[in-house]
Fold this sequence. Notes:
Protein name: DUF2971 domain-containing protein
Radius of gyration: 23 Å
Shape: globular
Oligomer: single chain
Helix content: 10-25%
Number of strands: 15
Low-confidence stretches: none
Number of helices: 6
Order of helices and strands: EHHEHEEEEEEEHEEHEEEHE
Mean pLDDT: 92
Amino acid sequence: MSDSIWATSAAFMNDANEMKTGVNALKSTFARIEGSLSKTDRDLVSRSSLLRGSSVFDSFLVSASALPDLLTLWRGYGAGQVAYAVGLDRARTLVPREQIPGDEHPCPPPGYRDGEIEEIDDRLIRLYDSDSVFVFGGEWKDVKYVSTTGTPDHETQIRDFIAERKFAIARGAFLVDVGPNVDGPINHEKDDGFIDEREVRIIVGLSPDWKFVKFREGRFGLIPYIEMTAGAADTHYISKDAPTLLPIGHVKIGPSPDPESALRALRVFLDSQGYGSTEISASSIPFR
């Protein structure tokens, strides 16, 4: 039994608009209200990162459902066989597992360190380290279902952004636009056509790729993904060989022709894998 779950690059998810719905709704809202904005206000928005989405390729996503016994999901993900819904403790943050130990790229490609060092006033200054480890996200958050054409909340977000920028400028504040937050609320918005799924999700951004990212085969070629597992509260990632258990509190067996036998088999399996305290139950939906 695996001690991790996969977080896949959002660019390779089934929904082609994954992590794009929110920012597209913002763009639609801005297009609708820009006639009511002054040129100064329009420029504040256009020159910022507000309407720029996060890089879906570099964002790794785990999707789940807040409800464990949905016919929609059993049909979608358990067709032709008995499926299982694994209930994870949402209070536990998941962290990526290291795949290659070490502090430096083992085989850096040409140009890997270009731009790290810059000469300033005849001195060589290191601006950044390409091998520095950064991990963002890892917490379960509820998906907010929205209209793709925008909502009143999107308009409020735009107008609040303008007001905050103008206030900061009036105070003479120095503004640095660092771009969208990969785990920000806008990336947890989804087309309301999927509302039946009751999705919760984890979004993770990290670097360097060489340390964490794995690949598997898919219909469209190589699919980047990372392994996520349980970590201590003060850890950002888990070393490659560290033993861990996922925070599994409950497992529900999907519609089955013989739920009693399925439950017994699952109990024996979980007990043998270190999950003896994990509760199990069978779906209330009849097998067809």
